[in-house]
Amino acid sequence: MNVFGRAELQRTVVLVVALLLTAGSADALAREFRAADTQNEDYPTVQALRFMGRQIAERSGGRHEIKVFHSRQLGEERETLEQTRAGAIDLNRTNAALIGNIVPTMNVLALPFLFRSIEHMQKVLDGPIGAEILGGFEPHGFVGLAFYDSGARSIYNGVRPVRSLADLKGLRIRVQQSEQMNQMMRALGATPVELPYGQVLTGLATKLIDGAENNWPSFVTTDHYKHAGHYTLTEHTMSPEVLVMSLKAWQTLSPEDRRIFREEARRSSQFMREKWRDLELQSRKQAETAGVIVVTDFERQPFEAAMTGIYARAQRDPASAKLIERIRKVN
Prior knowledge:
This protein has 16 helices and 11 strands. The strands form 3 sheets. Strands 2-1-3-10-4 form a 5-stranded mixed β-sheet. Helix 2 (44-59) packs antiparallel against helix 13 (255-289). The chain is globular and about 60 Å long. Helix 9 (179-187) links the parallel strand 6 and strand 7. By secondary structure, the chain is an alpha/beta fold. The protein has helices spanning 3-29, 44-59, 77-86, 96-99, 105-109, 118-126, 128-134, 165-168, 179-187, 200-205, 216-221, 247-250, 255-289, 300-305, 308-314, 318-329, and strands at 31-36, 64-69, 91-95, 142-148, 153-157, 172-175, 191-194, 211-214, 230-237, 241-246, 293-295. Helices cover 50% and strands 18% of the residues.
């Protein structure tokens, strides 16, 4: 073989190897992301995650896909949050109160009677305050992508109608695995019982607990309404859901892919809100048709006044105090 032929062959080999390496790198960048949600398959947050997955698959040319594990398939929320921080789960939909155990700022959003209405909450979360909060997740091992609505949480039980603080006294009420929620229920005079979400129905059925607190869809889709016939519209918290991504998974994305994930997460939030409004109305109607007594004439002012100690503790932290003030000033 002459010199020219050998040189051409070497160049060809180098080019083929380079192309193979490039193709291998592209394949390495493509992946399936695991998303966790404790809610059932038809729940708005699960539908929103699937919507986001479809959009990302389309915009990435099929390189990225999201596989949604619903109905606690990957564990209860506390377990999945730790797995997400460790990088074993890529995306996670969770409640503000629970992730507040890891990201302290989120505890502010879970404060009782902080938001005046759902519209007030959405205006806060869709604006600069919400963006700042989502931007503060990375030191804790997460990337905040978007907020999802979770309506207003109210107290329900199977013993008696609750119209005053006296009616709550002595009732064993399930709360999320959150110290702040424990404090709130104790301040109201009830006995808080921490239980994972998936164990609440059994707790109600076996009388381990007298009641719980949650929104209309959760109250109905979990069959809690079949064992707790008194629902008081306390609407004590409007703490949002939040969609987070493992920082480890985020770091594998290119800048362009990160932009796609953020944009589609925000779009999924709007998609979720539309689904949520429909489900909320449908769930309340189903509960009332089944005979659930809805108490609207409860003594709100004493409930709010009972939160004084919780706010005093929260405001010891200057950053939290400032955030509370900013939220209250949003019109």
